[in-house]
Structure formats: structure tokens, C-alpha cells
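// run 5 | inverse folding | seed 20
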């Protein structure tokens, strides 16, 4: 990889990177890539973000081990139209899964057909959706960490995790991985992304529960009834994974099969066993909470909804994930609705 980097740097070739859907993840990764002299980074997003970055610049901050890193960009190339996307040699698709259908139609006329498109969305089946509308090479990346915006133009990696990057023969895709690595971001090339996608979904099953609970994440995890619901949802997904003969990638200190067991522990024991899991900002919430609060479409169809749909293919019942999908829909219709976890556990015969 180092030989490739040296070759590209001395060739004088500049790559142009288009980041479509420049929200928290897109801006964070864009700030890091923009530090490299051989890359021109073009951000594509909404008006409000363009105005914010024009006024405050763009800064990403993250930590790897004991080392703290920062990447700042004073003059950001930001576009609200996709016309300039024709210049991109590689595209990072960072918009939410819910926006894909309409977004792909908008960018298709402005993409050169040989340009790799790297999908960063949560959920499963993302590659199939993109390939159904684009003829470009489509690659998958997994972002297992959270990025928050503590101040205008500031993007902070708020949880640990290794960026899983697609192993590819594409020189530009390989080069981006090397840039992330050289700038201090934990990154790993992965040839088979399905196990990673399925392992990430296992963790993302809590997004909806956190949203309908109305609680910060830490408070939700300290409530055993919410944990029982999450554990049951995870067991359903693990059963589907087994039917698909996919072993989900491990993203936490615990193996995927052990997560439901730990979540079911009594509160006093869970506090001890999962102490590391509970070291989070007491006010932190998962992203779907903000989506519900602001009236945006949620990713529920690509998360718990995907468990339900894939379960049907294997005749595996998924009543807990179906109930979670229903709760999100109810919350969308009635923003004041708050679910009762104890009642839900009784209805689903979990306690």
C-alpha cells in the first residue's frame, strides 16, 4: 500500500472525490481526505450545511488509542447541485438509506460510468438498491462509529470503531484507504462485507427502541425491560443469520451470540458486566431519535424491517422486530406517543 501511495504522489495525478449526502459522516470523512495534497474533495449536500461550512469552515476530530487527531479545512468546495459530480473519480455515498431512491435518480446523469461508488449507509440490501439504478461499480463500506456535531462546522467521532473499507483493485479506492490510515483513522480493508453488514445491523436494532423510548441511550440501557426487547430482537436476527449461513462480524468486546445473554442480565449484574458499554454521554441518543423528533423519514425499513422481510424468506417468525417497526410507525403518527416497555414485554411474552 505504501508503494501505491508513493507512486500516486510522485505521478502528479490529482483525484477528485465526490461526497454525496454531506452530513455528519460525509463531512467527517471529507475533512480527513481533504488533508491530502493529491485529493480534491467535493461535498454535495443541503443549503444549510453549505452555509454553515462557509461561515465556520470544516473540522473533524477523532482519537485512536491515546493519540488525538484533528483535520481542518478553511475553504470547502460545497455544492447543492450535482452538475460538478461529473468531475469525480470516486463517489462516497453518505446520504441516509431513506434518501437513496430519489438521490440515485438525481446523480445518475452526472456520474461517469466507470467511477466507483462507495455506499456508507446503515442497513442491509443497500448494494442491491444502488446497483438496480446505477451501472457504476458499487462497493460497500461500513462506518461502525458515531459522529456528532458539537458546534457549527465541527464533527467529532464520539465512539470507537474501525472504518471497514472495501478491498478493491481500484487504485483510487486503495488510495483513499491509505489516506485514512496515514492521517490516523483506524481503517481495515475487507473483501467480504456481508458479515460486517450483518454484524452492524445487530447493533443498529437498538436505534428504533431508543427512539420510541424517549430516553437517552444510557438510561434506556439501564432499563431491563428495554434490554429484554433488544435481546429478543437480536435473537431473531441471529436466527435469520444462521439460516443465511452468515456469521455476523463482532463489533464489540462480546461475541454477537453473547450480546442477548448479557442484555438479559438483572440490572445490578448488567451494570458490572457491561460497564464499558455504559461509558457514554448521559444525554446521548441514537440518530433515529432525532429523525422522529424532526419529522424525518426513519431507516426502520432497512433495520428492523429488514429483519422481518428476510425472516419471511426463511419462514422465521420475527414478532419482536415487527412490533418495533409498528412502534416507530405509531410514533411517527403520534409524536406524543411513548411506549411502555414492561407492557410490551408482557405482550410479547418476554417477561
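// decoded
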Amino acid at each position: 500500500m505504501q508503494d501505491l501511495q508513493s507512486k500516486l504522489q510522485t505521478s502528479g495525478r490529482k483525484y477528485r472525490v465526490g461526497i454525496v449526502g454531506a452530513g455528519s459522516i460525509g463531512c467527517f470523512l471529507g475533512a480527513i481526505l481533504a488533508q491530502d495534497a493529491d485529493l480534491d474533495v467535493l461535498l454535495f449536500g443541503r443549503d444549510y450545511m453549505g452555509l454553515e461550512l462557509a461561515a465556520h469552515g470544516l473540522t473533524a476530530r477523532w482519537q485512536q488509542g491515546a493519540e488525538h487527531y484533528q483535520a481542518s479545512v478553511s475553504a470547502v468546495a460545497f455544492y447543492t447541485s450535482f452538475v460538478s459530480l461529473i468531475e469525480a473519480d470516486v463517489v462516497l455515498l453518505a446520504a441516509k438509506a431513506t434518501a437513496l431512491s430519489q438521490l440515485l435518480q438525481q446523480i445518475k446523469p452526472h456520474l461517469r460510468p466507470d467511477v466507483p461508488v462507495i455506499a456508507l449507509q446503515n442497513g442491509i440490501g443497500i448494494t442491491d438498491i444502488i446497483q438496480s439504478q446505477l451501472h457504476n461499480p458499487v462497493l460497500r463500506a461500513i462506518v461502525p462509529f458515531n459522529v456528532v456535531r458539537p458546534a457549527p462546522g465541527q464533527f467529532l467521532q464520539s465512539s470507537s470503531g474501525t472504518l471497514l473499507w472495501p478491498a478493491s483493485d481500484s487504485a483510487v479506492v486503495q488510495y483513499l484507504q491509505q489516506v485514512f490510515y496515514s492521517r490516523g483513522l483506524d481503517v481495515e480493508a475487507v473483501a467480504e462485507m456481508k458479515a460486517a453488514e450483518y454484524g452492524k445491523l445487530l447493533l443498529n436494532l437498538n436505534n428504533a427502541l431508543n427512539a420510541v423510548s424517549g430516553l437517552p441511550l444510557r438510561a434506556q440501557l439501564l432499563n431491563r425491560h428495554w434490554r429484554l426487547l433488544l435481546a429478543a430482537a437480536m435473537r431473531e436476527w441471529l436466527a435469520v443469520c444462521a439460516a443465511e449461513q452468515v456469521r455476523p462480524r463482532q463489533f464489540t468486546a462480546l461475541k454477537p451470540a453473547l450480546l442477548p445473554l448479557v442484555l438479559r442480565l438483572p440490572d445490578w449484574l448488567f451494570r458490572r458486566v457491561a460497564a464499558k458499554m455504559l461509558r457514554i454521554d448521559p444525554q446521548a441518543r441514537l440518530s433515529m431519535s432525532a429523525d422522529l423528533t424532526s419529522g424525518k423519514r426513519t431507516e426502520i425499513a432497512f433495520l428492523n424491517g429488514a429483519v422481518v422481510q428476510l425472516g419471511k424468506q426463511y419462514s422465521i417468525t420475527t414478532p419482536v422486530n415487527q412490533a418495533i417497526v409498528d412502534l416507530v410507525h405509531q410514533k411517527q403518527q403520534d409524536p406524543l406517543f411513548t411506549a411502555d416497555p414492561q407492557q410490551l414485554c408482557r405482550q410479547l411474552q418476554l417477561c
